[in-house]
Sequence to fold (52 residues):
Amino acid sequence: MNKYRCVICDYIYDPAVGDPDSGIEPGTAFEDIPEDWMCPLCGVDKSNFEAI
Fold:
């Protein structure tokens, strides 16, 4: 699975880790994250992420 980088703050979403603080379990593909999820560092939406 690809990792995704926030173009605003450089936060990396790693599917192997997920985002447990936001209720996203490890192993969750970026495409499967709810549309209302926001970057845990800067608060922007998923449209501001790019695959790396």
Summary: The chain has a mean pLDDT of 97.
